[in-house]
Specification:
The protein has 402 residues and is mainly β. 7% of the residues lie in helices and 35% in strands. It has one domain: Neuraminidase. The protein is globular. The termini are far apart.
Length: 402
């Protein structure tokens, strides 16, 4: 064999090794595949006390893997509240309290708060205490210490309220009926920033900072100290100074605006310090660093009009938080994305009224086993658990303990 022939063979062999390594990295071994889900129609269990729930304004999972639901008792039609009418109309049913805590098996652990919890708004959450329950419940978050944060998106709802896990009032951020613009920051009488119909919250545990998607009237992310409620920073789309100037209706063919549309519907802080924000009607999820520096954005369904398709940013519980889940209330399914790239891997569910189908799916949360919990608004008024069946192909051995 000539020197030239040996040289060609050596180069060919090296190239083959490179190609094989590329295939292993992007394909066969170690590639991430979408998790599969199956609805658990036994979850949750039947509620006690002849209770029913209304629209689901928010859903969250705590550090004990308990599932917390914020529902809207005022959204329940009179025909389902027969015993409460004068004269009584029927034997069905009574509105459950606004906040419900379930265990993994779907048993109700406790329930409290809101207009259907007798005496709560007269003794445990009063204006004199600085606690103003929202007109329309929207968004719930439970931190590692068991504190429960709720928001609202009704007309006067410009506040986030913090409670203990048992429903004792701790503090309020903002003030009902007193809206602050997206920029500049204005303060409520209690020294916390005024909000604009906040949609959702998440916590940077290490920094003890609460991130608020603000919201249905404002067009920003605002960050406050989770203990005191004091203002830290805020930003708009692409890290810009937020503006409340009017934006034309969404058009799939038009350039994306430099500001968020309303609602700014979600915020999620990942373990690696990236912050995910849902610009729902613009069909995009923007990614930031915790200081508000814009990193990138990816699209959900750019052809969706109406209410938009970017509702949530639920993160998978593996070490890398590989997947991002978004419950799309316009197209009626759950999107499964690769978190780091925004690549669409799969969709879960479809529109309908059977188990595993969706009618106005709105809220989503993920537990430590990767199970997904969803809640529905409008005529849906339903909770569902989607059990994680794992992926179709195992990840590398290095990820076995994720």
């Amino acid at each position: 064999m000539s020197k030239w022939t040996r040289y060609v063979c050596m180069i060919a062999g090296a190239l083959a090794l490179v190609l094989a390594g590329t295939a292993a990295a992007t394909g066969k071994k170690g590639a991430k595949h979408a998790p599969r889900f199956e609805v658990d129609a036994s979850w949750p269990k039947t509620l006690p006390n002849n209770w029913v729930i209304g629209q689901t304004g928010g859903i969250a999972v705590d550090s004990r893997d308990h599932i917390w639901v914020l529902q809207r008792p005022r959204s329940i039609a009179e025909r389902y509240l027969g015993p409460t009418l004068t004269p009584p109309r029927s034997t069905c049913c009574f509105a459950a309290p606004s906040v419900l805590e379930f265990d993994q098996a779907g048993n109700l652990v406790q329930a409290w708060g809101g207009p259907s919890d007798p005496g709560f708004l007269q003794s445990r959450c009063t204006a004199a205490m600085g606690c103003e329950w929202p007109e329309t419940e929207h968004g719930i978050f439970v931190d590692h210490n068991g504190f429960v944060y709720i928001g609202g998106n009704g007309g006067p709802d410009h506040q986030v309220i913090k409670f203990t896990r048992n429903g004792d009032f701790v503090m309020q951020i903002g003030k009902s009926g007193m809206r602050g613009p997206s920029h500049p920051i204005t303060l409520a009488p209690n020294g916390t920033p005024l909000l604009g119909r906040p949609a959702e919250m998440d916590l940077d545990r290490e920094a003890n900072e609460l991130y608020i998607a603000d919201g249905y009237q404002n067009r920003r992310i605002i960050v406050v100290d989770a203990t005191s409620g004091q203002y830290k920073r805020h930003w708009g789309a692409y890290g810009n100074v937020p503006s409340d100037a009017a934006i034309p209706p969404y058009d799939p063919a038009a350039p994306l605006p430099q500001q968020f549309r309303t609602p700014v519907h979600c915020v999620a802080v990942a373990a690696d310090g990236l912050v995910y924000v849902c610009d729902r009607v613009s069909n995009r999820i923007q990614v930031f660093r915790t200081n508000g520096t814009f990193v990138k954005e990816f699209r959900t369904d750019p052809n969706t009009r109406g209410n938009g398709s970017a509702y949530n940013a639920g993160l998978s519980p593996d070490r890398a938080q590989s997947f991002l889940f978004n419950a799309d209330g316009e197209n009626q399914h759950i999107w499964v994305f690769m978190r780091q790239t925004g690549q669409v891997l799969s969709k879960v569910g479809r529109g309908g009224r059977q188990a595993g189908e969706f009618t106005a799916v709105h809220s989503l949360a993920v537990d430590s086993k990767g199970n997904i919990y969803t809640g529905e608004v409008d005529a849906g008024m339903r909770l569902q658990k989607h059990a994680n069946l794992g992926t179709s192909r195992r990840d590398d051995d290095d990820d076995d303990d994720d």
